[in-house]
Amino acid sequence: EQCGKRRITDGLLVIDDSLAHKSGKHIEGANWFWDHTKHAHTFGHQLVTSQWVGKIFHVPLHYRLYRKEEDVPQEAFQSKLDLAIQLIEEAMVSEIPFSCVAADSWYFCDKIIKYLASICKDWVFASKSNRKICVKGLWMSLREFAKTLKKEDFKQVQITKTKYIFSGIDRVKLYTGLR
Questions:
Q1: What's residue 10's pLDDT?
Q2: Over the Cα atoms of the chain, what is R_g?
Q3: Where does the record place the Transposase IS701-like DDE domain (predicted)?
Q4: Which of 57, 80, 145, 150 is buried most deeply by CB count within 10 Å?
Q5: Would you state the pLDDT for residue 77?
Q6: Which residue segments constitute the domains of the chain, with CATH numbers given?
Q7: What pLDDT does residue 166 have?
Q8: Using CA atoms, how far apart are residues 92 and 69, in angstroms rounded to an integer?
């Protein structure tokens, strides 16, 4: 409703997962998960979340509790990728205005990319440097590709008060499996 009143017509849908640390050992859905910030296993709830990001504000949207395969019946298990797709679908059903999805490298995989292509959404994901891309018919790792870039391949743009530098290189075909 606020989006319509403010004439907001587009934004970015961000998918992320977070740990909610717990100390009680008998909390439903809690388990041991790897905490990247502490570089150790931590007991808690793992949530997959969605957030809408616009020019002037961010809005938390939805979340799903991730449960490890060992904690649920086999037919009920849903991976973090499955939960991310559900969150994207829920944003669409809720008519949240977004044209692009962003996430960290965990979500950069064939399943998510193919899904986003099927619903005609752009995407921006972090990527590991060993991912393979196809540039003009030649497959190479992102690390190798980065070495081919020249200063003139980039230009600076300013959005509000922040300056960004990006490549003017057009789309490249990405292969998310290892070669």
A1: 85
A2: 19
A3: 11-133
A4: 145
A5: 95
A6: 2-126 (3.30.420), 128-179 (no CATH)
A7: 57
A8: 28
User: How would you classify residue 22: left for phi > 0, otherwise alpha for psi between -120 and 50, otherwise beta?
Assistant: beta
Please report, as a single letter, which amino acid is at residue 70: E
Give the helix/strand (H/E) hosting 31.
Answer: strand 31-35
Nearest C-alpha neighbor of 94 from the set 136, 48, 52 = 52
Q: At residue 71, what are phi and psi to the nearest 5 degrees?
A: -95, -10
Amino acid at 138: L
Q: Is 50 exposed, middle or buried (0-12, 13-18, 19+ CB in 10 A)?
A: buried
pLDDT in tens, 10-45: 889 999 999 999 998 889 999 999 998 899 999 999
Ranges of the chain with pLDDT below 70 = 1-8, 156-179
CB 137 within 8 Å of CB 173 = no
What element of type H or E holds 60? strand 58-66
Q: Do 17 and 106 form a contact (C-beta atoms < 8 A)?
A: yes
DSSP 75-125: GG---HHHHHHHHHHHHHHTT---SEEEE-GGG-SHHHHHHHHHTT-EEEE
d(CA 156, CA 165): 4
Q: How many CB atoms lie within 10 A of CB 87?
A: 22
53 residue type, one letter: V
Supply 96's token pair: 């949240």
